């Protein structure tokens, strides 16, 4: 796909039809219930009014957009307002933790309309297929609540217009987020830290065969970072996730940074103590091992201090604008972690004569971000 600026990048070429559709869908989503006129869509994308009219007519026919009244007249003809139909499509986001699963059903606006939680043993003795069966069962249970989800194909806003809206199977796909390392492009797991038996397992293809819909697989931290970027976080930031493990999702200049091999963000495996305790990754003195050990003995102040030291290293390396903390361990005592990490970053900034990088609790959940792995491309936001 051509690299075209999102706010002024429409191109009246057949080859970019899906890109231009995504531009308009993203603006419709951003306009919310108030909607947006065709003229505004043309102004903000650089597309001709004729191109906008053609695309929006197709979106209306396929059920993705609807007319929603008129703007008040300013002396000329009243402008018809269009808005997105959130229920025209849904995605499922799944967060696979080491011992639990959370799955959410979200509409096109990103609103969670249903969710399911279940215990999960990621290292189940029965093997990967047993885990796949559990995941598929939870997704299928959520999918039963989607109108039209029983269809045999997946239809999007660039499907030929001969397909009527009532025929649209509304489940667009499933996004799965779990600990890495893994290959996001192929949906294949590597030696997931602590679970080497997953090495080489084609999770994306196994689930897609089972469910009959597209599946996208990514690291939990990347999915969460994508969800935060879609929700409005701007610039360059790091999402630090402390749960049963520790990792980072990196957004650089508005785009998720995965690295050439989906290896970016293995934040928890910085070695900060050469003679430290062994880590599941095989090294000693990793940030993850030190943090989790401190949490296990109830020393949250020490866990936050170690996390702050590692966050400071990341800031020094990447010069990011913001640190966001999340994960279920952070959620048990968010104030303690925010205070502890901020204290370390404030002290480092003071020594350098700089303003400290702010630290905030991250809104949202990993599963919500996993759903954006599916919805993102629909709105031209596969990476941000």
User: What's the number of helices?
Assistant: 11
The largest sheet is:
5 strands, mixed
Low-pLDDT residue spans: 1-16, 149-155, 159-169
Question: Radius of gyration in whole Å, from Cα?
Answer: 22 Å
Helix proportion of residues, in percent?
25-40%
Order of SSEs: HEHHEEEEEHEEEHEHEEEHHEHHEH
Total number of strands = 15
Query: Termini distance?
Result: 15 Å
Beta percentage is 15-25%
What kind of oligomer do you see? single chain
- Mean of pLDDT: 87
Class by SSE composition:
alpha/beta
Query: Based on CA inertia axes, which overall geometry fits?
Result: globular
Strand order of the largest sheet: 6-5-4-7-10
Write out key terms for the chains shown.
384 residues, alpha/beta, five-stranded mixed beta sheet, 11 helices, 20% strand, globular, disordered N terminus
Protein described:
The protein has helices at 17-31, 38-45, 49-61, 128-143, 203-211, 220-230, 287-296, 300-318, 328-332, 334-352, 366-378; strands at 36-37, 65-70, 80-84, 90-96, 100-107, 112-119, 171-178, 182-183, 188-189, 215-219, 237-242, 246-252, 255-256, 322-326, 359-361. It is an alpha/beta fold and 384 residues long. The two termini are 15 Å apart. 36% of the residues lie in helices and 20% in strands. The protein is built from eleven helices and 15 strands.
How is this structure best summarized?
The chain is of the alpha/beta class and 384 residues long.
SSE inventory with pairings:
Elements: H1 17-31, E1 36-37, H2 38-45, H3 49-61, E2 65-70, E3 80-84, E4 90-96, E5 100-107, E6 112-119, H4 128-143, E7 171-178, E8 182-183, E9 188-189, H5 203-211, E10 215-219, H6 220-230, E11 237-242, E12 246-252, E13 255-256, H7 287-296, H8 300-318, E14 322-326, H9 328-332, H10 334-352, E15 359-361, H11 366-378
Helix pairs in contact: 2-3, 4-5, 6-11, 7-8, 8-10
């Amino acid at each position: 796909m051509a690299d075209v600026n999102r706010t002024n990048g429409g191109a009246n070429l057949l080859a970019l039809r899906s890109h231009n559709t995504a531009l308009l869908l993203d603006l419709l989503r951003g306009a919310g219930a108030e909607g947006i006129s065709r003229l505004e869509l043309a102004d903000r994308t650089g597309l001709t009014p004729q191109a906008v009219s053609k695309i929006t007519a197709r979106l209306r026919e396929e059920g993705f957009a609807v007319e929603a009244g008129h703007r008040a007249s300013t002396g000329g003809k009243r402008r018809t307002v269009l808005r997105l139909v959130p229920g025209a499509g849904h995605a499922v986001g799944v967060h696979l933790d080491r011992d639990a699963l959370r799955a959410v059903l979200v509409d096109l606006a990103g609103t969670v309309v249903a969710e399911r939680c279940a215990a999960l043993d990621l290292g189940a003795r029965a093997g990967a297929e047993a885990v796949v069966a559990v995941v598929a069962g939870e997704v299928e249970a959520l999918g039963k609540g989607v109108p039209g989800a029983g269809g045999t194909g997946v239809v999007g806003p660039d499907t030929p217009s001969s397909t009527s809206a009532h025929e649209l199977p509304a489940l667009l796909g499933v996004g799965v987020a779990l600990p890495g390392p893994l290959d996001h492009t192929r949906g294949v797991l590597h030696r997931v830290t602590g679970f080497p038996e997953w090495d080489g397992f084609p999770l994306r293809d196994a689930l897609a065969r089972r469910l009959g819909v597209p599946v996208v697989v990514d690291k939990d931290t990347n999915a969460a970072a994508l969800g935060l970027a879609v929700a409005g976080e701007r610039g360059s930031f790091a999402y630090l996730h402390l749960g049963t493990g520790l990792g980072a999702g990196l957004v650089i200049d508005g785009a998720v940074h995965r690295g050439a091999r989906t290896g970016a963000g293995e934040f928890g495996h910085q070695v900060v103590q050469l003679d430290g305790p062994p880590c599941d990754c095989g090294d000693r003195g990793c940030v993850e091992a030190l943090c989790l050990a401190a949490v296990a003995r109830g020393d949250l102040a020490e866990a936050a201090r170690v996390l702050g030291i590692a966050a400071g290293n990341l800031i020094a390396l990447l010069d990011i604008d913001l640190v966001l903390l999340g994960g279920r361990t952070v959620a048990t005592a968010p104030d303690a972690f925010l205070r502890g990490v901020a204290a370390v970053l404030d002290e480092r900034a003071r020594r350098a004569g700089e303003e400290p990088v702010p630290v905030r609790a991250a809104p949202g959940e990993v599963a919500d971000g996993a759903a954006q792995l599916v919805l993102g491309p629909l709105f031209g936001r596969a990476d941000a």
